[in-house]
Please model this.
Amino acid sequence: MKLIRLTVLAAAALAAPVTFAQGAKLKVGLMLPATGTFASLGTAIENGFKLYVQEQGGKLGGREVEFVKVDDESEPAKATDNVNKLIKRDNVDVIVGTVHSGVAMAMARVAKDTGTILIVPNAGAGAVTGPMCAPNIFRSSFSNWQTGYATGEAVAKRGHKKIATVTWKYAAGDEMVAGFKEAFEKAGGQVVKELNLPFPNVEFQALLTDVAATKPDGVFAFFAGGGAVKFVKDYAGAGLKKTIPLYGNGFLTDGTLDAQGTDAEGIFTALHYADGLNTPRDNTFRLAYAKAYKLQPDVYAVQGYDAAQMLAVGLNAVKGDVKKIDEFAKAVQAAKIDSPRGVFTISKSNNPVQDFYLRQVVGKENKSVGIASKALADPGRGCKL
Ligand code: PHB
Model:
């Protein structure tokens, strides 16, 4: 009887469709910026992702991981070709990328068409977990709206009434300002001026002159990477820092403090990660990251690490079979991701639901000084998953 049962089970296992060769490696396509203003963000994401894979003995979902990389240059015009290269030429099993919202939207379009699993480890474009959402498209980071909204709430609580915004003119800047404005105006404030310049330009002088003439109570700015370094330095250099306080979602001062020096001192930001969280989970992560890379981690490193964690959750549920999209998605949506930022969950449109910290720059740290917004979920407008 026992023998018969075993035979039946073995036959069932053999009959189950396996859509990848047993023992085949899992090819992960990393599409990140290696050049340009976001290059350091790409490096941190890759480091974080690889750290988690190393901690799992080099395997996810029972399959040994191998990487194929492409430098997307944060260039939307090249994005479709780049992602097609990974899928069609390199035959990757999953894609992880990227930083820039415009590039991520092109990636999501291809992922949707081909059914390839995509995990976005930074870019916050609302469409990716909104109108373009799909069971195979996930994000380990934030929506642009979330970061703007949390900062808008925090700046309103500091008692300001009139704010000017400054950002790069593309999806990320537009959506962050919209989120900021929604929260800030709901709290009785007013956005009195919206200033911007094309991505990735860093000629800020004309905008700073405009800020000085407008005399708002404060400024909300989104810049990141090399652009954030220069903006914070130019803002202080123009003599504005003392008279018109500068705020941002935390990208303005994350991974940039060594280069910004004292020009960043005291700046308040809101973000889903901070220094000095001092939880066992974060301390362990930071120690491991510092040991592996001789660098301090930042928000981008955490997002890369968590992209690997989310991939592991999904792959474990489908035993490494990336074609079982519905089971993969169900497992990720049911999970509590044990992130260095704090535990977070994944919404029905596959975007993190998470706490946002209020942070202040003290020396070389974005020190956590409280919670800006608790369990904030993106409205996921238009997602019909
Ligand atoms: C984006 O383009 O979505 C983006 C880029 C850099 C950041 C945050 C968002 O730091």
User: Anything to note?
Assistant: Residues 299-317 form the longest helix (19 residues). Residues 99-101, 122-125, 144, 172, 224, 251 surround P-hydroxybenzoic acid (CB under 6 Å). Residues 1-9 have pLDDT under 50 and may be disordered. The CA atoms of residues 152 and 184 lie 5 Å apart.
